[in-house]
Amino acid sequence: MQQPSGKTKYLALLAHPVDHVKAPSFMNPEFEKTGLDWFLTPMHVRPENLEDAIRGLQKIDNFLGVNLTIPHKEEMAKLCDELGPNAKRTGTVNAVRFDEDLLVGEMFDGVGLLIGQKEYGIEVTNRSSLILGAGGAARAVAFSYIDEGVKRLGIQNRTLARAKKLVADIKAAIPGAPVEVASDDPSGYEVICNCTSLGLHKGDPVPTQIDKLTPDMDVVDIIAVRETELMTAAIAKGCNVIGGVPMAVGQLSLFVKFFDPAQNGRCQLEIEE
């Protein structure tokens, strides 16, 4: 792989913890393949240091901006000077562009997941879907599922208040949206999507009742670093299962256009699990 030089433009992927980050392994080769002298590097930033880290990176002239993952998506939105349409309604960001002295944020998780799912034949239009989680990624996915015409959307979260807030926020933004607070019982749903961090590490508890999974269900887990316990159980049940790589890949061309609009149309990466 080509080594960075003084002409290279940098992006940082901020996370806590950082050991699960996988995106640089396929994004950097794709940048090189398409002639972009860009380099994405993971950085371990604790929540209490997020603002200081951002302000420091802003002062580096060859940094285009940052991508964000767990647990920074909601807090980073509060630090932005401008928000794109998806970021405004979800209250979350996973990409921030350094635009002079301004921080411009947008959220691509939901749109990216829809792109990735469709590559595997998983549609949500006119189907019932259960989202596990109510954090930054879950918020983005929930709004995108509603936009895509989901028939019924359940939101389940360990902290009930967060699930209720997400449901209320969706209904406030999209009156009549078919969304409700749900339990961890997947019965009656056609698409199950894990948007929690459970599964990042071996031995994490499974966020749904796996004994209620049936072969006619599609199971999506946004964890990209490993085959999670949920994925393993769903495969054993005969479900159609995908992990988090398709969501990440689905966002690549969107990221490139966001960080440099002149690059629109580049980085159309094929999805491989």
Largest sheet properties: 6 strands, mixed
Q: Tell the overall outline.
A: globular
What is the CATH superfamily classification of the largest domain?
A: NAD(P)-binding Rossmann-like Domain
Give average pLDDT, whole number: 93
For the largest beta sheet, what order do the strands appear in spatially? 2-1-3-5-6-4
Low-confidence stretches: 265-273
Q: How many β-strand stretches? A: 12
CATH topology of the largest domain: Rossmann fold
Structure, explained:
It is a single chain. This protein has helices at 23-33, 50-58, 73-79, 85-90, 109-119, 136-147, 160-173, 229-236, 245-250, 252-259; strands at residues 9-15, 38-44, 63-68, 82-83, 95-99, 102-106, 128-132, 152-156, 179-181, 191-194, 218-221, 240-242. With 273 residues, the chain is of the alpha/beta class. The protein has two domains: 9-107 and 252-261, Rossmann fold (3-Layer(aba) Sandwich), CATH 3.40.50; 110-247, NAD(P)-binding Rossmann-like Domain (Rossmann fold), CATH 3.40.50. A six-stranded mixed beta sheet has the order 2-1-3-5-6-4, sandwiched between helices. A six-stranded parallel beta sheet has the order 9-8-7-10-11-12, sandwiched between helices. Helix 5 crosses helix 6 (136-147). The two termini are 21 Å apart.
Keywords, separated by commas or semicolons:
273 residues, alpha/beta, Rossmann fold, 2 domains, 6-stranded mixed beta sheet, 6-stranded parallel beta sheet, 10 helices, 12 strands, 21% strand, globular, disordered C terminus
